[in-house]
Amino acid sequence: MHVEGNILIHAPQSDVFDFAENVELLTQCIEGCRNVHELGDGKYAALLEAQIAFLRMAFKVTVELSRVERPNTIEAHIAGTPVNLVGKIDARAGLTLEPAGPAETRVTYALDVSLAGKLGGMGESVFRAKAKEYGDRFAVHLRDAVESKLLEKAP
Amino acid sequence: MIPFDLQEPASLAEAIALLDPDDPSVRPVAGGTALMLMMKAGLFQPTRLISLRRLEGDLRRVHVDEHGDLHLGALVPLSKLELSPLVAEHAPAVSETCRTLSNVRVRNVATLGGHVAHGDPHMDLPPLLIALGARARAVGPRGERWIDAADLFVGYYQTALERDELLAEIVIPAPSPDSSAAYVKFTALSADDWPAVGVAAAVRRREGVILDAVLAVSAATEKPIRLAAAEAAIRGKSTSSGSFDEAAEAAAHEVEPLADIRGSTAYKREMVRVHVRRALIKASHS
Predict the structure, then answer these.
(1) Could you tell me if B70 and B48 are in contact, meaning their C-beta atoms sit under 8 angstroms apart?
(2) I need a labelling partner for B7 at 20 to 30 A (CA). Which of A104, B125, B173, B177 fits?
(3) Mutate which: B1, B35, B43, B118, vs A, most A CBs within 10 A
(4) pLDDT at res. B144
(5) Does A129 reach chain B within 8 Å, measured CB to CB?
């Protein structure tokens, strides 16, 4: 399953990158992402919760930054298991930053997710239907968080 | 399985009172054919299930009113719809659709209300109900209200029903003498699998001209939807295959299919094109 989208952020590319490479800040932009803590060696553990209609799903995941190339690219590998459900989730997430103006950055997000087990069999269609919605909301949260952080810094 | 509360109310009012508008994991259950699969898989963990099996009366009745409208109670099993002479006379496309809906074991247990209110876009009857101009009667603590079938489905597993409302009945308006309807589907994996694409068409025609058409697609999309561009493309045209091609082309352009194990986006778009044409041919020659 591949999901991608982009958003324009009114902030210089370096500020957006500083924010995005901070896993604890970035994960605050992901709806339902809680209990983020560092495991060491650039790895983090987190709990992801999603509510889709009457279905509530939770995943225990580890997040590892697999590629960080300032000022354009941040990639992460996310792997984990659902709580109370047989299955596995494995995802590659990437952010690409491009300057779009004097103090504007175009951020493109891409997510490749594979689901296995019961999760893949019954949950796949629902995930596919909602993944783009979740991705777009992440992008909006990222934009809002970066822009408000920039306002805080302003003299 | 995680323990949950199971209630078996004896009246509709009692059932409604047991619903919780603030807790999405409190669900009514009728036949349970869809919900039980989700529970077994661990995908759905209810805090409370409200079994509707003890409810009787109009909820289990099929009848035609003085205007010729067909009333289908929400707790009517799908096999009863399949075999009912009243349904066969007033909405033959519904009887026919039920014959290939899942399998006979499911149809004996699954109810119309569950089939519709579950909000799964792969269900067969929702697009047909949209094409037939059906309405749903929802009952809740604030009384009852009517929802057009076209407005009932709002997203994946999501309907316009509030969490404290139950679906009481579906009403299909009396058809005009010059109208007919059909549903066609394509199952990519096995004959009784969920459809990859389902298309319903209802047409009103006179002397070889389509006066009006309602087209709805499901399964390939996040929810059952009307195909407005395809409907416009066929309106006022002849019942020839050339006109159907135009509508099929318009449908393929306007639809936004979701890829899954039953087919890619491009494949489902093509299947929409093929099956809109087939649905129009079938409806126009019924």
Answers:
(1) no
(2) B125
(3) B43
(4) 97
(5) yes
Q: How many interchain CB pairs under 8 A, A with B?
A: 58
State which fold the B5-51 domain adopts.
3.30.43
Residue A60 lies in a domain: no
Top residue of B156, B163, B258 to mutate, by most chain A CBs within 10 Å, is B156
**Domain assignment present for A71:** yes
CATH number of the domain bearing residue A90: 3.30.530.20
Report the DSSP beta bridge partners of residue B166: B139
Residue given tokens 């995930």 in the structure block = A127
| Structure-token match 């490479």, residue found | A21
Cβ of A128 and B261 within 8 Å? no
Tell me which residue range forms the domain holding A140.
Answer: 2-29+65-153
Is B222's Cβ below 8 Å from some Cβ in A? yes
* Residue type, position A60, single letter: K
Q: pLDDT (tens digit, 9 = 90+) per residue, A79-138?
A: 999 887 778 889 999 999 999 988 999 999 999 888 877 666 666 777 777 788 888 999
What confidence tens digit (pLDDT) does each residue in B179-198 have? 999 999 999 888 888 899 99
Amino acid at A131: A
- Which strands sit side by side in the sheet containing B143-148, from one edge to the other? B62-64, B70-73, B166-172, B135-140, B143-148
Q: What ipTM was reported for this prediction?
A: 0.75
* Homologous superfamily (CATH) for B179-284: CO dehydrogenase flavoprotein, C-terminal domain (3.30.390.50)
Instruction: Identify whether A49 is part of a domain.
Output: no
B34 contacts on A by Cβ (under 8 Å): none
Q: Which CATH architecture has domain B57-172?
A: 2-Layer Sandwich (3.30)
Whole-angstrom CA distances from B270 to B41, B265, B284 are 32, 9, 22
Residue type for position B3: P
A46 touching chain B per CB within 8 A: no
Selected residues 84-103 of chain A with any CB under 8 Å from a CB in chain B: 84-86
Closest CA to B194 of A17, A131, A121, A57: A121
* B103 shares contact with chain A (CB less than 8 Å): no
